[in-house]
Amino acid sequence: MTHYLTPDLCDAYPELIEVVEPMFNNYGGRDSFGGEIVTIKAFEDNSRVRELVATDGKGKVLVVDGGGSLRHAMLGDMLAEKAASNGWEGIIINGCIRDVDVIMETDLGVQALATNPLKTDKRGLGDVNVEVKFGGVVFKPGCFVYADNNGVIVSPQPLSMPND
Fold this sequence. Notes:
Elements: H1 6-12, E1 18-19, E2 25-26, E3 33-41, H2 47-53, E4 60-65, E5 73-75, H3 77-85, E6 90-97, H4 100-103, E7 109-115, E8 127-128, E9 132-134, E10 137-139, E11 144-148, E12 151-155
Parallel strand pairs: 3-4, 4-6, 5-6, 6-7
Antiparallel strand pairs: 1-12, 2-7, 3-8, 3-11, 9-10, 11-12
Helix pairs in contact: 2-3
């Protein structure tokens, strides 16, 4: 597992990267992560999150646009553990998570706006692999995202740490 440092990536690739506005907290067991973007756009319904974390996520980061809702958690411990067991590098949620104490011990990068103990309804709603925009950046499926305690950056191509 590569340890990414977003300041170093910003310095090495200034012409490629876009920096997401500071809005996320780091909750996962991995303090840095990166990979190919897979997106979900869903408001207060994590049905699509449940579906995607059950698939092979090796080298990928799930970017969930929950519309910034702070009323329900789009991710909990069971889905985080499922994502980790299926090789996902991380999950970035424009919304909330719950079961933080367990997620902090899970081998998965997780960044979200906040926590909320209330789960979502399961209505089967949401779009997969569509462009989503939040934090001043467009997240395009097939592009790449990198996250650590310094922030979140997006690149149209994979980046490697300088001197790797």
